[in-house]
Design a protein that fits this description.
The chain contains nine helices and seven strands; from the N terminus they run H-H-H-E-H-H-E-H-H-E-E-H-E-E-H-E. Strands 1-7-6-2-3 form a five-stranded parallel β-sheet. A two-stranded antiparallel ribbon has the order 4-5. It is globular, with a radius of gyration of 19 Å. Helix 5 crosses helix 7. The mean pLDDT is about 90. It is about 35% helix and about 15% strand. By secondary structure, the protein is α/β, with parallel strands linked by helices. Bound molecules: zinc ion (2 copies). One zinc ion binds near residues 31 and 34.
Length: about 240
């Protein structure tokens, strides 16, 4: 009774508001209709392996693969992303990552759980892409962990934030895909192989760019004995194919 009254008081003092524009909404942390419609959410048809959005004409009822996956280029078991990396997603990603706007985590993680609706949720560990220590100290939080925690809770599996360590390397913001691959090579070390061996691991990150980071992390996890590695990100770069 007391807690219900307290909840009502909190709702009255802090009514649910859209985290992006502040418009009233019905549930805490949810986007208003206008902000929701700004994002390019990835629906169907899409590549069954990497989640790349495919043109409507591709919907034929059989297994759908993008040209890259058809050529065996995807290094994850599967990958899903909630939306396309564009002006709208960039406008929330940058303040979320660098500006302390951690309140965005709620709608972002919810969108990522939605993006996982058509894959077998058979992972037993959820692992955010680790941040190097100097960057974590500077930023005070790992944005991937903020996204991974509610996903692990929704899947009812363990969140693993410390089995892999990451060495500090320069930011990959303006690098070519080849430079990204070179820059990321050897940065991850599995420090708790006992917690990785035999596991089906779901990696979580905010954005999928060239695949260099998730691909390298997958490599070290499989080397350490992981059973399989898949991934989910809030948004992904979509280049014409
Ligand atoms: Zn809004
Ligand atoms: Zn694909």
């Amino acid at each position: 009774m007391v807690s219900r009254c307290l909840n009502r008081l909190v709702e009255f003092l802090f009514p649910p508001a859209c985290p992006v524009c502040g418009a009233p909404v019905s549930i805490h942390g949810e986007l208003c209709g206008d902000c929701f419609s700004c994002f390019d959410w990835i629906g169907n048809p899409k590549c069954e392996i990497c989640g790349y959005p495919l043109p409507r004409s591709a919907a034929t009822g059989r297994l759908l693969h993008c040209p890259a996956c058809a050529a065996g280029a995807c290094r994850l078991r599967w990958l899903r992303s909630a939306c396309v990396y564009d002006d709208a997603s960039r406008a929330v990603m940058l303040p979320f990552k660098h500006g302390g706007r951690i309140k965005y985590a709620r709608f972002m993680s919810r969108a990522m759980i939605w993006a996982l609706r058509d894959v077998a949720m058979d992972c037993d560990v959820v692992m955010p892409v680790p941040l190097a220590r100097p960057r974590l100290i500077h930023r005070t939080y790992n944005q991937a962990t903020l996204l991974a925690r509610p996903i692990a809770r929704a899947m009812n599996v363990r969140l693993d934030v410390d089995s892999v360590r990451r060495r500090h390397r320069p930011d990959m913001g303006h690098m070519t895909p080849h430079q990204r691959k070179e820059n990321i090579s050897g940065v991850f070390t599995v420090v708790r192989p006992d917690r990785v061996r035999g596991r089906r691991i779901l990696l979580v990150d905010d954005v999928f760019t060239s695949g260099a980071t998730l691909g390298e992390l997958r490599r070290v996890l499989l080397d350490a004995g992981a059973d399989s590695v898949c991934g989910v990100t809030f948004c992904r770069v979509v280049r014409a194919i």
